[in-house]
From TrEMBL:
EC nos: 4.2.1.2, 4.2.1.32
Name assigned to this protein: Fumarate hydratase class i, aerobic
Residue ranges, annotated region (Disordered): 111-130
Keywords assigned: 4Fe-4S, Iron, Iron-sulfur, Lyase, Metal-binding
MF terms in GO: 4 iron, 4 sulfur cluster binding; fumarate hydratase activity; L(+)-tartrate dehydratase activity; metal ion binding
PANTHER family: FUMARATE HYDRATASE-RELATED, L(+)-TARTRATE DEHYDRATASE SUBUNIT ALPHA-RELATED
Domain called Fe-S hydro-lyase tartrate dehydratase alpha-type catalytic: residue spans: 14-295
The species this protein was found in: hydrocarbon metagenome
Sequence similarity: Belongs to the class-I fumarase family.
Amino acid sequence: MGENQMITSTQVTDATVRALYRAETSLPPWVLERIKEGLERETNPLARSQLQFMLDNVSLAGSRGLPICQDTGLAIFHVQMGQDLILDFDLQEAIAQGVRRATSQIPLRPNAVDPLTRENSKDNTGPGMPDIILDRTCGQSLSITAFPKGAGSENMSLVMMLNPADDPMEFIVDAVRERAANACPPLFLGIGIGGSFDLAARLAKHALLNMHRIQPYSQESSQRADRSITLTTSPEEIKKLEESLMKRLNNLGIGPMGLGGDTTVLGLRIEKALCHTASLPVAINFQCWANRSATEVIL
């Protein structure tokens, strides 16, 4: 273990603002590449026009420094913190300060409301927000990934406790058939199979957050380290499931914006964990075509 390192709350707040700005006004290169690949393969003229509109929209947002979508989402962050780091401040509050600044500076739409009174917090922070997924890692760096999540796709997400005899792949296909058109397709899907009710949802979110690490598959990405949260399933088995499922979902013909076409899903990732002998939890985290994220690393 190396010497303990220290960072300041100001560094975290500033990094949060930068990550949110980049996430809201641009798309990761691998997401843009997926949309372009979809456009090249698409045979439906209307679907092709929708995909081109998406690319034009991203270009315009980037050139003007404006959010890609009017729904700037909830403030969700994936934070990877090195075990050699020492924090003498409240990490949640430092990131929340960044969210408040970004809300006024970018600007972001105030989306966070009380679930019962519907009162708006006006700055996207409050109880439970920002939502921070924290992982401890080796080393001495702090990585902050902004992952804004809009309501259109999030409202289509679900967790279902299936019977052990049920086929989870059939459930997933049926869910996408019924819900995809309302989630601003083409989609990215994070899928969690197994665990408990809450673990299945966490697996699905984890799959969505880390989808870029297996796009495309490579010898390096087949190592277990990239799927360390999963149990019992080899990467090769998962790869075959994912490829088969992608083909089935794109054959549904839902297409971009639900208007028909060959391009319904641009990417998916499955994470799997052991579950109770009498249970089969399955979670699907829908993500629209604007799969926004950006990472800032401190130290």
